[in-house]
Amino acid sequence: MRISATAISLIVDDVPASSAFLREHFGFSEEMAAEGFASLKRADTGANIVFLSRGLPTLPEHQRNTHAGGLIVAFEVEDLEGEFERLRDEGVPITMPLTTEEWGERAFQVTDPNGVIVQLVDWKG
């Protein structure tokens, strides 16, 4: 098997709101979009993030009404404190404060308008 691309698809209620959140606060660009669908990319992430509208009829029936709950979209960054300050200054609510785990992970979280958790992380060890 050869994998040529990676995407994370998340089912949300308001696709434009989640798309705007990643574009405005994380520098993603929208590659494709249609009713109930948006695919976003950053050249440095190696993966697309796709938002699908809850109830989208092209999804299998057992998936249509699920929500992207319980998932964390994590981005490793070089300047964690700088990103924390930037997002706070932009008015993005910090939903998990900057923490340090005993294994060396440092992280904080924000949550988009649909409840998608975005975690920024670095490793100090």
TrEMBL record:
Q: Which Pfam families match?
A: Glyoxalase
- SUPFAM superfamilies the record matches: Glyoxalase/Bleomycin resistance protein/Dihydroxybiphenyl dioxygenase
> InterPro entries, from UniProt?
Glyas_Bleomycin-R_OHBP_Dase, Glyas_Fos-R_dOase_dom, VOC_core
Cited Gene3D superfamilies: 2,3-Dihydroxybiphenyl 1,2-Dioxygenase, domain 1 (3.10.180.10)
Q: Which domain of life is it from?
A: Bacteria
Q: Where is the VOC domain?
A: 2-123
Protein name in UniProt: Glyoxalase
> Which organism was this protein described from?
Actinopolyspora erythraea
